From TrEMBL:
PROSITE patterns on file: ENOLASE
Catalytic class of the enzyme: lyase
InterPro entries named in the record: Enolase, Enolase-like_C_sf, Enolase-like_N, Enolase_C, Enolase_CS, Enolase_N
Cofactor(s) this protein requires: Mg(2+)
Membrane spanning residue stretches: none
Species whose genome carries this gene: Sulfurimonas paralvinellae
Top-level lineage group: Bacteria
GO terms assigned for molecular function: magnesium ion binding; phosphopyruvate hydratase activity
Binding residues for substrate: 152, 161, 282, 309, 361-364, 385
Pathway: Carbohydrate degradation; glycolysis; pyruvate from D-glyceraldehyde 3-phosphate: step 4/5
Name of the protein: Enolase
Xref: Gene3D superfamilies: Enolase-like C-terminal domain, Enolase-like, N-terminal domain
EC number per UniProt: 4.2.1.11
Record has Cytoplasm as a keyword: yes
């Protein structure tokens, strides 16, 4: 049974405080988990409880820590760690709100992940095996964010993420190697062209380029210079994070000095998709622009993956509405948007049942915790988005996946089969 639940305040990859929760079982097993934090958050995400005031510019999480150490701990001590749903439901009930408005999703998710990890450890099985059982065997195809813009970098680029997807390889290990080679070549090309090679929050470069198309062009050059075939071996994915671009007159593209309507933006995507091997676009429209999303799905839904992040916020109710209305065809999965391991699993099940692809995802503020690597394999997500091949908080996830691929005998890597 659960013998002790506690938390402390630690730091994330941006130097902001976050929650580290620890769960100890009666057999002596002890496991911890650290909660990530977003920058371009969706409006309907579960609440991340911050202290306010002057400490850490208001971003302290001592209240969330206190909630773990008192009310959550009191409720969970004595419970079995092997029934994740019951543990998560108890925390949901004592919170009593729709969005963890009282305890904080950062308090609840930390404990939820630590309970899962302690249970796995106590049974002596890897976390992906505990959460996914014998059927967990799909190694995710990574989306690596190698040029950062938007609110993840201080450069001129409006779109938030330019990613490569190594789709033409046999396994995860080879895919990651090829991606790292493209990344190194991209750095050389940017330097040769006189651009900055400073990094954004997710380890991608953050050069000042003069349009939102130019990053795609330099990535195409990098793929070629690394000796790979663009499209066939390495495809391109975008996260526009368009909620961040919304202004009164439409969507503001600063780097191109123009403001566009939803329709013009969708036409822009069509143009880009015709010119480049783009296989996936995330948050192409703002989170409230469901008409725009509908249009984008109609125009591009049979050609590319259309991912809802801010749009669905890992929330089964919102996803269900999207499914009914024919909006998008894939969902980004961020456990801290919804607040617990069990609720994340429910959303993934709903998506998979309805033919929506699931992309397990990090946040821009991360830590050394690689929980999502195991979680992606456990749920057979098939895709994971966890930054470039730089910065240890991103590499922690990739290194864990390399380890998992070595362990799994019947590991399956989908790559381009994802899009057939
Ligand atoms: P966030 O960004 O973690 O800052 O929200 C990631 C994303 O938009 O996918
Ligand atoms: Zn996103």
């Amino acid at each position: 049974f659960i013998d002790n639940v506690s938390a402390i305040e630690v730091m994330d990859s941006r130097g902001n405080p976050t929650v580290k929760a620890t769960v100890t079982l009666s057999d002596g097993t002890s496991a911890s988990a650290i909660v990530p934090s977003g920058a371009s958050t969706g409006k309907r995400e579960a609440l991340e409880l911050r202290d306010g005031g002057e400490r850490y510019m208001g971003k302290g999480v001592l209240q969330a820590v206190e909630n773990v150490n008192s009310v959550i701990s009191d409720a969970l001590i004595g419970m079995s760690p092997f029934n994740q749903a019951v543990v998560d439901a108890v925390m949901k009930e004592i919170d009593g709100t729709e969005n963890y408005g009282k305890l904080g999703a950062n308090a609840v998710l930390g404990v939820s992940m630590a309970v899962a990890r302690a249970a796995a450890q106590s049974l002596g099985v890897p976390l992906y095996r505990y959460l996914g059982g014998a059927n967990a065997m799909v190694m995710p195809t990574p989306m690596l964010n190698i040029i950062n813009g938007g609110s993840h970098a201080d450069n001129s680029v409006d779109f938030q993420e330019y990613m490569i997807m190594p789709v033409g390889f046999e396994d995860f290990t080879d895919s990651l190697r090829a991606s790292a080679e493209v990344y190194h070549n991209l750095k050389k090309i940017l330097a040769e062209q006189g651009h900055m090679t400073a990094l954004g929050d997710e380890g991608g470069f953050a050069p000042n380029l003069s349009s939102n198309e130019e990053p795609i062009q330099v990535i195409m050059q990098a793929i070629e210079k690394a000796g790979y075939k663009a499209g066939e071996e390495i495809a391109i994915a975008l996260d526009v994070a368009a909620s961040e671009l919304v202004t009164e007159g439409g969507y503001r593209l600063d780097s191109e000095n123009r403001t566009v309507t939803s329709e013009e933006l969708v036409a822009y995507y069509e143009e880009l998709c015709a010119k480049y091997p783009i296989v996936s676009i995330e948050d192409g429209l703002g989170e409230d622009d469901w008409d725009g999303f509908k249009l984008m799905t109609e125009r591009l839904g049979d050609k590319i993956q259309i991912v809802g992040d801010d749009l669905f916020v890992t929330n089964a109710n919102i996803l269900n509405e999207g499914i009914q209305k024919g909006i998008a065809n894939a969902i980004l999965i961020k456990p801290n948007q919804i607040g617990s391991v069990s609720e994340t699993m429910l959303t993934v099940r709903l998506a998979q049942r309805n033919g929506y692809k699931c992309v397990m995802s990090h946040r821009s503020g991360e830590s050394e915790d690689a929980f999502i690597a195991d979680f992606a394999v456990a749920l057979n997500c098939g895709e994971i988005k966890t930054g470039s091949t730089a910065r240890s908080e991103r590499i922690a996830k990739y290194n864990r996946l390399l380890e998992i691929e070595n362990e799994i005998v019947y590991g399956e890597y989908l790559g381009s089969a994802l899009f057939n």
